[in-house]
Amino acid sequence: MKKILVTGANGQLGKELRDIAKKYPVFEFLFLSREDMPIHHFELVRRFFSQFKPDFCINCAAYTAVDRAETEKDLAHLINAEAVGVLSSVAAAADCRFIHISTDYVYSGNAAAPYVETDETRPSSVYGKTKLEGEQAALQNDSMALIIRTSWVYSVYGNNFVKTMMRLMNEKASISVVNDQVGSPTYAADLADCIMRIISNTDWHPGIYNFSNQGTVSWFEFAEEIKRILGSDCVVNPIPTSEYPTPAKRPSFSVMNKDKICHTFNIQLKPWKESLLQCMLLLKK
């Protein structure tokens, strides 16, 4: 029985992988939270690998506080870059296939067409820079590493845009949402399914891949669809990014081309509206 080690198991993606694991009884899973195995505690990482002997490692652990990273640069670098380097080198030494989750923030955010994996990376935030350094460390230490760049992740678990909007729409008569940042949402359950399809594939194709749900939308349009499904009377006002300043610069355009992952692993992308409805039905329960 092949073994899969999942780091960051209490995050949105980690919990979705825990749910989907039930559909894959052919694998033995070990889910490790930040408390179980902080990935920047390097000796602990080595010990878990030597004890569990995983065939696959899915690294969902990350420093994701985008704005706080601007002041906590060292901690963001330790978790998003240095620790990823250690994880990948330990995985390579153990002949364990390493899957690392990255982000659209590695791109410049100023493109006019959807990003392909070979496009220039030019992150504008500390978070994006440290995630890019993590990618580079993973590929440098493990030539068989597989990296998935994803965007606008939400889930029934954790804190995310969908849950925040649902709460605000129930509490307030009106809210304001930026209308000049465009991207593609990712339902973490769909990403978990994609990862398990990659692992279940008989052929391993290392490298960098983009993944999100299908379709392009602004945060305002995303909020409007949440409002429609919710049946809310809350007024959603579109505003420019300039009216909602944040410590870390957000990409104005982060739409990614997903042809590579679809063709390589025969992945069928779900439309973002379909996945949003699925998630919100679960949240309503």
Structural key phrases:
12 strands; globular; 285 residues; Rossmann fold; 18% strand; alpha/beta
Gyration radius, rounded: 19 Å
Helix/strand class: alpha/beta
Named at the architecture level, the CATH assignment of one domain is 3-Layer(aba) Sandwich
> Residue-averaged pLDDT, rounded?
96
The quaternary organization reads as single chain
| Distance between the amino and carboxyl termini | 35 Å
- Unreliable residue runs: none
Shape: globular
Please write the string of helix (H) and strand (E) elements. Answer: EHEHEHEHEEHEEEHEEHEHH
As laid out across the biggest beta sheet, the strand order is 2-1-3-4-5-10
Tell me, what is the CATH class of one domain? Alpha Beta
**Helix percent band:** 25-40%
Could you state the CATH homologous superfamily of one domain?
Answer: NAD(P)-binding Rossmann-like Domain
Fraction in beta strands: 15-25%
Here the CATH topology of one domain equals Rossmann fold
Number of helices: 9
Number of strands: 12
Question: Largest sheet, if any?
Answer: 6 strands, parallel
In short:
Helices cover 40% and strands 18% of the residues. The chain is of the alpha/beta class and 285 residues long.
Provide structural commentary.
The protein is of the alpha/beta class and 285 residues long. It has a domain at 2-154 and 186-213 and 256-270: Rossmann fold (3-Layer(aba) Sandwich). 40% of the residues lie in helices and 18% in strands. The protein contains nine helices and twelve strands. Strands 2-1-3-4-5-10 form a six-stranded parallel β-sheet, with helices on both faces. Strand 3, helix 3 and strand 4 (97-103) form a beta-alpha-beta unit. Helix 2 (42-52) runs parallel beside helix 3, helix 3 packs parallel to helix 4 (126-141) and helix 7 packs across helix 9. The mean pLDDT is 96.
